[in-house]
Write a structure and sequence with these properties.
With about 240 residues, the protein is of the alpha+beta class. Among the domains are: about 70 residues; about 90 residues, Ribosomal protein S6/Translation elongation factor EF1B (Alpha-Beta Plaits, 2-Layer Sandwich). The protein is about 55% helix and about 20% strand. The chain contains 7 helices and 4 strands, in the order H-H-H-H-H-E-H-E-E-H-E. The protein has a 4-stranded antiparallel beta sheet. The radius of gyration is 48 Å and the shape is rod-shaped. The chain starts with a helix and ends with a strand. Keywords: Coiled coil, Elongation factor, Protein biosynthesis.
């Protein structure tokens, strides 16, 4: 009987029965937290599986881009050297023309023969009417002879590099558009396609122009107006004919 009394007293002191809602809440929070931890672990495993191939793919793309950049740097270096070379050559042609020949070397053979003509006769003839008549006849004959000789026409042979926008440009159509440029004193010549890089070709075309009738700057501007096909125009060679 005493023992039953002691147990009853002990149970009376225990508050677990009165605080059951609190214990239930704590238990629920514990299991909810454990469930969230499982979700976090699952997400962590999934992210590792996704990130690893993506990193490998990014590293491969980065290496490919580095190779492309190196190729482009090499092409740009060649282009800079080419432009420098052209810039050094073109001013030399414009500012430092070839040394002109002497008057005697420039004179045609027929002109040299004319040197033997004494327009004013011999001093021994005297300054009389007969001598004056002879001088006038010889001068008229010499003037008529010179007027029949054709005048020399200054011409230049030019080779142009016409570059397209990309490898999809129709090069045949571009050449056709270039050859449509016509004017007095301009004659188009041979042409060919020269490879540049990455499947891109440039059109190298020659022409002969009369210096007094056709300006090189004008011709380049007319070609650059073909904007659908032409990116730029450079002078590859310039020679007097």
């Amino acid at each position: 009987m005493a023992t039953a009394t002691v147990v009853t007293a002990a149970l009376a002191q225990e508050k677990v029965w009165l605080d059951k809602p609190s214990y239930d809440k704590a238990e629920r929070q514990y299991f909810e937290k454990m469930a969230k931890m499982d979700d976090v672990m699952a997400l962590t495993d999934m992210s590792h599986q996704d990130v690893t191939p993506r990193i490998a793919n990014l590293e491969k793309r980065n290496k490919d881009l580095q190779d492309v950049v190196q190729d482009l740097e090499a092409v740009l270096d060649k282009l800079e050297k080419r432009v420098t070379s052209l810039e050094q050559r073109i001013p030399y042609i414009a500012i430092c023309p070839a040394k002109p020949e002497s008057v005697e070397e420039q004179m045609p053979e027929k002109d040299k023969d004319d040197e033997d003509v004494d327009l004013f006769g011999s001093d021994s003839e005297g300054d009389d009417a007969e001598a004056a008549k002879i001088r006038e006849e010889r001068l008229a004959a010499y003037t008529a002879k010179k007027s029949k000789k054709p005048a020399l026409i200054a011409k230049s042979n030019i080779i142009l590099d016409v570059k397209p926008w990309d490898d999809e440009t129709d090069m045949k159509e571009m050449e056709s558009e270039v050859r449509k440029i016509e004017t007095d004193g301009l004659l188009w010549g041979a042409s060919k396609l020269v490879p540049l890089a990455f499947g891109i070709h440039k059109l190298q075309i020659s022409c002969v122009v009369e210096d007094d009738k056709v300006s090189v700057d004008w011709l380049i501007e007319k070609i650059q107006e073909i904007e659908n096909y032409v990116q730029s125009v450079d002078i590859a060679a310039f020679n007097k004919v």
